Amino acid sequence: MAALGIREEDLHEEFILGSGAGGQKINKTHSCVRLRHQPSGTEIRCQASRSRGKNRIIARETLCQTLEQERARKRQEKARRQALARNRARKPGPAAKKRRRQDKQRHSEKKSLRKPPSAR
Questions:
Q1: Angle ∠(71,66,61) on CA atoms, nearest 5
Q2: Rounded to whole angstroms, how far apart are CA atoms 91 and 14?
Q3: CATH architecture of the domain covering 8-111
Q4: For 15, which of 24, 30, 36, 88 could close a Cys bridge (C-beta 3.0–4.6 Å)?
Q5: CA distance to 56, 58, 73, per residue, from 34 (Å)
Q6: Alpha helices for the chain (secondary structure H)
Q7: What is the pLDDT of residues 10-42, one digit of tens each?
Q8: What is the mean pLDDT of residues 94-117?
């Protein structure tokens, strides 16, 4: 958590009733953990274990993984936008220029066929 800059003060932790498989014990104890990271708004809910302590640890690990993935996604998106901007600013190469000239020549020949035979 320290490596990602997540402070304990930024976390809001709640314990709620569990649900699902696990019998009567899971349904009447508050072992499910809901962890909210307030700066990012990310919310994690963990009910992997019947133990509240284990669920707290698992919820924090999951939060760290989620925030790390989100930051990696943002870095990739920024790099992609920068690459697109570089490619837009780049001048066309010799092959692109040659292809453009050929297309222009072909179009010119098509247009010349529209003229009457005497004007060609």
A1: 125
A2: 57
A3: 2-Layer Sandwich (3.30)
A4: 30
A5: 9, 11, 24
A6: 23-28, 52-89, 94-112
A7: 889 999 887 777 677 777 788 889 999 988 889
A8: 93
Q: Which amino acid is at 55?
A: N
User: For the segment 60-78, what is each residue's pLDDT rounded down to a tens digit?
Assistant: 999 999 999 999 999 999 9
Nearest to 47 by CA among 67, 70, 30: 30
Residue 117: its pLDDT value, please? 79
Integer Cα distance of 77 and 88 in angstroms: 17
Helix (H, G, I), strand (E, B) or coil at 77: helix
- Cα 117 to Cα 82, 104, 120, distances in angstroms: 53, 22, 6
Closest CA to 31 of 63, 60, 55, 13: 55
